[in-house]
Amino acid sequence: MFNWTHCLVHHTAALDDPRSMQADNVIDYHVRVKKWRDAGYHFLCEMIENTPVCIILRPLTEVGSHSTGWNTTAVGVVFAGNYMEGAPPDALIQMSINDLFRPIICGILGITKDHIYAHREVKRTACPGDLFPMTLITDHL
User: Fold this and answer.
1) Domain of 37, in residue numbers
2) In a domain, 29, yes or no
3) What total of structural domains would you count in the chain?
4) pLDDT tens by residue, 53-95
């Protein structure tokens, strides 16, 4: 496994349709359009039929493909939705804190909350959107 020292948080910038799994769309886009062999992110958080879920997209034993210059040191977490247009559901944020960030990102991987960044903090982008509550996550770790 890599020596993960950071975590970058992204959004898909697409409408999250709660009736279908957005992970399939992310994988399809990255493989078919970008010609990558797999999804670029390690984890995807989304709502499926009003239930928040976290899905493994790329194993932590593999380098990511989500932010140039950071892929070998930063775990990539993407949230399904466009958070320039609306905030993510509270249930999705709470699930990500309780089921992903605390036990895996901070627990198993040992990444400290001051090394969890919004994508826009390391690259010129709006990702994960102006309405994404990064501090809600990092303040509760």
Assistant:
1) 6-138
2) yes
3) 1
4) 999 999 999 999 999 999 999 999 999 999 999 999 999 999 9
